[in-house]
Structure formats: C-alpha cells, structure tokens
Amino acid sequence: MLSVRSNCKMPLVMMCGFPASGKTRRAAELAEYLKTKTSGKVHVVEDHPDGTNREEIYSDSHKERESRGNLKSHVQRLLTKEDVVILDSMNYIKGFRYELYCVTKSCRTPHCVIYCITEEDTSKSWNTSRDEHLRYSDGLMAELIQRFECPSPNSRWDKPLFTVMQDKPLNLEDIGRALFEQKAAPPNQSTQSQPLASTNFLYQLDQSTQDVVSAILTAQKTSVPGDQLKVPDAKEPLNFIRPVTLAELQRHRRQFITYSKSHPVSDRNKIANLFVQYLNKTLNS
Q: Which of helix, strand or coil describes residue 213?
C-alpha cells in the first residue's frame, strides 16, 4: 500500500519516446491509477493542444524552442503540494529533460521518467494510422526519430527511469512508489542561486549553445582552415582553424554551461555570442 507524504510537493512524471510510441495511452493509464492514490488532481499536460500545427513547429527551431518553453512554464504553474503533473510529450531532448529536472529540484518535488520503447517501423506504422490532424509527415517523423536522445539510467535527470515495451504493461505500483515514497532531490547551488522563474535562463542557455554547435558542424563541411564561420544570433564569427568533432564541441559546451549557470548574463540574447567568444579562446589556445 502506497503512503503519500502530506508534507511534500507532488511529483512530475515525464513521458518520453518516439512520436506515435503510445505515450498518450500510457499517460492516460497512469493518470487513472494515480487518481486512486492521491486526494489531489492529476494533470496531464499535452504538448500539442488542439489546433497546433506540428509541421510548422518542428520545422522551425525557434517555434519549437518557444513551444518547449511554454510547456515548461505550464508544468511549473501546476506543480503544487496537492497535485500530480504528467507531461505527455516526446521530451526527446536530454537538455529539456534536464531543465525539467531543475524545476523539480527547485520545487523540492520528486519526479520520474517513463520511456515508451517502440521499434522505428512500429512508430511509423502507428503514425500513419492516426487521424490526419494528429499525423506527422513521413519526413518529419524520420527526422524526429533521428534527433531522439534516449534517456539513460546513469543520468540523474532521467532517474528513476521506467521503460515499457510496446506490448508490455506499465509497472504501476513501482512507479507509484517512486513518486510518492522517494525523497525529492535536494536543491544544489546552481538551482538555489537563481529564483524559479529564471529556469528559463537555463533553458535558453542549453538551446542557444546547442544551436551554435549545430551551426558550426554544418558550416565547417564547406569551409577551409582560415575561414570565419558565421553563427546565427552571434555577432562575432568563429575563427575556423581546424575541423572540430561533435564530441569536442559538446565537451566545451558543457564547460561553458557550467560556468554560465553560476555567472548568468542579464541579456540572454548575448548567450550565442559569448559562447562563440569562449570557443575562439579554447579551440585556438
């Protein structure tokens, strides 16, 4: 029998998986179960309300970023001592899952990730059987699957992680115990030093630096050493001395993010330019 601690904030559940992987069905199943375990409400937050044009959002990085920001703000508003929040979304970017994890740490509430595992062909087949307004185009479907970043049980923001295969039942009791009986992760210095509203800064920091990395990887394919690479949203170009790998860029990106979290800038439009300046110093030293 689950014991719900009355002195804690209620938890956040992050659904995760390919498009058309059964997340909405699993979220509804979990919501019905959790309603029997709490006297509060169980909120299911959908990533695409009625009338949303998915093709338009996922074809434009800025619109997609804005959509994720709205989702996170919605989740923040719903996290209370009484209610449970289930985010029914792909949550396919690990940086976004990290941002949500930071929100739960700031709120001192537990969380978990439920990863709905499907074969690529299965998700594509399920997608084609959907109603037209819910269906992704074949091209977008393939792109989103390629961009998907699997949750890992070794990442603190993905723990506790529950995986469920397409033909297996959810382990509802274990999920309930993780949500209602585990202690919330204590806030660390990075989450305490900024107010809850400023988690948007961390989100922009993650997205802006990722956009810079993507732009550099694309630009260097058609460049030669000595060129100056233009980077979107950055006034300063990157001095292209030599080809750099994704692994190297991601390592420098993590270092820049760690520093920036403790030294946030007031003008978030400067993030991309500051990251380029940082790369010019580190890559060319």
A: helix
For 56, the token pair is 């338009």
What mean pLDDT, rounded, does the chain reach?
A: 85
User: 108: closest CA among 189, 191, 177, 39?
Assistant: 191
Scored b (16 or more CB within 10 A) or e, 211-225 reads bbbebbeebbeeeee
Residues 218-273 pLDDT 10s: 999 999 988 999 998 899 999 998 999 998 999 899 888 888 877 777 778 889 99
Give the β-pairing of 84-88 and 228-229: unpaired
Q: Write the pLDDT tens digit of every residue in 188-226.
A: 544 444 433 355 777 788 889 999 999 999 999 999 988
- Phi, psi (deg, nearest 5) at residue 24: -65, -40
Q: Which domains does the chain have, with CATH numbers?
A: 12-189 (3.40.50.300), 193-283 (no CATH)
d(CA 23, CA 37) in angstroms, rounded, equals 21
pLDDT band at 187 (very low <50, low <70, confident <90, very high): low
State the average pLDDT over residues 3-17: 71
What's the pLDDT at 49?
A: 65
Query: Which tokens belong to 82?
Result: 């009484």
Q: What is the mean pLDDT of residues 54-59?
A: 84
Please give the Cα distance from 135 to 123 (Å, whole number): 11
List, in order, residues 6 or more apart from 188 with CB less than 8 Å away: 105
Query: Nearest CA to 12 among 48, 44, 40?
Result: 44
Peptide bond before 237: cis, by omega within 30 degrees of 0?
Answer: no
Type of residue at 92: Y
Tokens of 190: 């990075």
Distance CA 96, CA 32 (A): 26
> Measuring CA to CA, which residue among 113, 64, 109 is closest to residue 86?
113
